[in-house]
Amino acid sequence: MKKILLIAILCSAFMMQAQTVGIVGPAANGWPDATNPTPDIMLTDNGDGTHSIDGLTLTTGPAKFRQNQDWAVSWGGDTFPSGSITNGDIPVQAGVYDIVLDLNNNTYTFTDVGTFTQIELVGSAVTGSSNPQMSTIDGVNYELSVTQFANGDIQFQEVGTSTVYGANSFPTGTATAGGMAIPVTFGFYEVTFNLNTGDYSFDIPDIGIVGDL
After folding, report:
1. Are the beta carbons of 140 and 59 closer than 8 angstroms?
2. Would you list the DSSP string of 127-161?
3. Cα angle, residue 93 at apex, residues 49 and 176 outer, rounded to 5°
């Protein structure tokens, strides 16, 4: 009897160790598909029935947790930033979060732990008294509304740091950390920048005419 009990305990311990939990969905790395069957961002098994990950940047969209990168066992929810586990998709809002999935109490919690990296444009092509700051809703894709630039150089810079991104290409290109300044020509531009890929674009805005001619 003792031997059977010991084997059962060992098997249970092995199964607990083998269990992995990840988060998937458009809010993270997307849903699994044929081209990317395991987009799961893995959580840490804390050994006490909870799984967690700290400082994860998410975009606005649905997400779920699942076991062992498979849909056989999954957990979702109907509310955000916390709630009870259901079969629904969790309606995540863009932000940076510490996440805890508590399988003891069948709950999940997304704790907002900070803001996104702020990006500004610096260099001799900047006009005005301050560096224009770009806006973002996901901490990845940044935009600057129509802004006037002079002939000169531009780099993307993380606000409050010396980290800059640039490339010797205009009006489009792929910036790298510490890269060369972008050679901008005079004009009005809408600017986009992807912090993950480094892709950027300076686009001449469309101009419309209104009123009687």
Report:
1. yes
2. -SSSPPBPEESSSSEEEEEEEEE-SEEEEEEETTS
3. 100
Question: What are residue 71's phi and psi, to 5 degrees?
Answer: -90, 0
Let me know if 20 is exposed, middle or buried by CB neighbors in 10 A (0-12, 13-18, 19+): middle
pLDDT in tens, the chain (213 residues): 454 444 444 444 434 445 899 999 999 989 999 888 999 999 999 999 999 999 888 888 999 999 999 999 999 999 999 999 999 999 998 888 999 999 999 999 999 998 788 999 999 999 988 899 999 888 889 999 999 999 999 999 999 999 999 999 999 999 999 999 999 999 999 999 999 899 999 999 986 555 565
Amino acid (1-letter code) at residue 81: P
How far is it between the farthest Cα atoms of the chain? 96
Which residue ranges form the domains of the chain, and what is each CATH number? Answer: 2-114 (2.60.40.3620), 119-203 (2.60.40.3620)
